[in-house]
From TrEMBL:
This is Serine/threonine protein kinase. The lineage of its organism: Bacteria, Bacillati, Bacillota, Clostridia, Eubacteriales. It comes from the Bacteria.
Length: 219
């Protein structure tokens, strides 16, 4: 039995049978309860939770909450992306979860929170990665600071589950504008930590602004 097969075995025997993943509100991240020993929760999205195991840290398993759609689409996205240094790649999948190689780094969100400098090269890497995805017939969607990482001196994208959605998503373009207009001239030199409550306030204000802008256009 190879390493991937061993990982699949403990997912089926130890993880899936012992955890509870609840989707309380479709607009909020899922909630995970009863994480078994040796398993590490890496993060939660609106559809699924991502785990790794202390003995298999080169891989992650993404398990969808019951009733949440999107797994089949995400599998199609990873097949379209193939192997690219800015993305994870698909190792294995079932009708309930998928296994990916693990990307190690720090999200841009945590860079802001900890005062870690984000060089322009990281932004350029992400831009090139998104261009590559478009060439593969995909539509970059929901690209924001919690879905982007610095891995060493390289920018990587860690969540591409919505890349089949054809409607335009302005998150990345809006972030780029803010990065070059405000971060580079005012914060880049000093790398001041930004408190989490302030980051959440910025996020909520942005969402309110986008909703208000949409309503204004419809009037």
């Amino acid at each position: 039995m190879n390493e991937v097969e061993k990982f699949i075995s403990i997912i089926d025997k130890k993880l899936r049978t012992n955890i509870v993943i609840e989707s309380i509100d479709s607009g909020d991240p899922v909630v995970v309860k009863h994480i078994p020993d040796s398993w590490i929760l890496l993060g939660c999205g609106n559809y699924a939770a991502v785990f790794t195991h202390q003995d298999f840290q080169d891989y992650v398993v993404k398990i969808y909450a019951a009733g949440r759609i999107g797994l089949k689409e995400e599998i199609e996205v990873y097949k379209a992306i193939g192997r690219h240094p800015a993305y994870s790649y698909l190792v294995y999948y079932t009708e309930e979860y998928l296994i990916l190689n693990r990307i190690r780094g720090i999200t841009l969100y945590n860079c802001f929170r900890r005062g870690i400098k984000i060089p322009p090269k990281i932004i350029q890497d992400i831009e090139e990665a998104l261009k590559y995805a478009r060439k593969r017939g995909l539509y970059p969607h929901d690209v924001h600071v919690k879905n982007i990482m610095m891995m060493g001196n390289r920018g990587v994208v860690v969540d591409i589950s919505d890349f089949k959605h054809k409607e335009y998503c302005s998150l990345w373009d809006d972030f780029k504008k803010a990065y070059y207009r405000y971060y580079v001239p005012f914060l880049y030199r000093f790398t001041i930590p930004i408190p989490e409550f302030l980051l959440n306030l910025i996020r909520k204000s942005y969402r309110y602004y986008k909703k208000l802008k949409k309503i204004t256009k419809e009037i």
